[in-house]
Design a protein that fits this description.
Ribosomal Protein S5, domain 2, alpha+beta, 6 helices, Alpha-Beta Plaits, 305 residues, 3 domains, five-stranded antiparallel sheet
Length: 305
């Protein structure tokens, strides 16, 4: 499997909780050999989702679930895998102090978030000195950051490509525990991320269109309508070849001129509306009716890989 990032989600549906559990077990097994398959449950719709690097990849994974693992299931339409990231450095404090059934819970952390290079993922760095926070709580703190990042800040998409630095905090000899520090870290992360100018990111495709010169104007107009940009144009044997960058969201429903060939290029920020809000493309879709048993994703035979 090419080392490309997963850029699509596919929802999978079952008749009941038992088959859903079997589908989850199958996806967990598939993921061991395929890093392009990420599994998650949508917090808004409770849909079971798995990722892929292309429509064909999604279809192959679904076929394994139903054919190899014998799970009765049906699929929904492929959808874009958006991400979130931060664009500047920010700091925040998180405290979790509770009294529960006579036992105390105390966790206190100070975090610094800063953007990382695209594709670097999540980094965790510890600047604690002098036992301000005991070493045994570092792992729960990192777990709290990662769990909070998975839930998103702006639109519920995973937050990636940042460095989190634990630089201060405090603990209580009797009341501090793993859960308290994990919760305190998640509070600090969410607060810092909101201050760090978060943005929604979308996958952008490198698109190639080859067509007669007479159709080039229409093709470039279609690219413009799809929020794309033309990178270059070349001519050979009476044909024009247009190289462009176009958001995947637009290409999934391409009805424009010609038959484009596409390959993933990079993730880019989703454009903002005039009112300063994120473009609707970056917002999770609302809960809809359960699909019928014949629900299908995009035709895998017309895949663009």
């Amino acid at each position: 499997m090419p080392s490309l990032p997963p850029i699509l989600w596919m929802p999978i549906f079952t008749a009941g909780p038992e088959d859903r559990s079997r589908a989850l077990d199958a996806l967990t097994a598939i993921r061991r050999d395929d890093p392009g398959v990420i599994v998650r449950s949508d917090s808004q719709t409770d849909e079971l989702l798995f990722s892929g690097i292309s429509v064909e990849h999604l279809q192959d994974t679904f076929n394994k679930i139903t054919d190899e693992y014998r799970v009765p299931a049906w699929k929904g339409a492929a959808r874009v895998r958006y991400l979130e990231t931060i664009s500047r450095i920010a700091e925040a404090e998180g405290k979790y102090i509770r009294q529960t059934s006579g036992h105390g819970n105390y966790g206190h952390v100070r975090l610094r978030l800063q953007p990382s290079q695209r594709g670097k993922g999540i980094g965790f760095f510890n600047e604690i000195k002098g036992g301000v926070i005991p070493q045994r709580f570092f792992q729960p703190i990192e777990a709290g950051i990662r769990e909070a990042a998975d839930g998103g800040i702006l639109a519920g998409h995973e937050v990636v490509d940042f460095m989190a630095t634990l630089y201060d905090g405090s603990f209580h000899e009797l009341d501090s525990n793993d859960i308290a520090f994990q919760i305190a870290a998640s509070i600090a992360f969410r607060e810092a991320a909101r201050k760090a100018s978060p943005v929604v990111m979308e996958p952008v495709m490198a698109v190639v269109l080859t067509l007669p010169e007479a159709r080039a104007g229409a093709a470039m107009a279609d690219i413009n309508v799809c929020r794309g940009r033309v990178e270059s144009i070349s001519q050979a044997r009476g044909l024009l070849t247009i190289h462009a960058k176009v958001p995947l969201q637009e290409m999934l429903s391409w009805r424009g001129t010609g038959s484009p060939v596409m390959l993933f290029s990079n993730y880019e920020p989703v454009p903002r509306h005039g009112n300063g809000g994120e473009a609707s493309a970056g917002v999770r879709r609302p809960i809809g009716p359960e699909p019928k048993s014949d629900a299908e994703a995009v035709d895998p035979n017309s895949d663009w890989t």
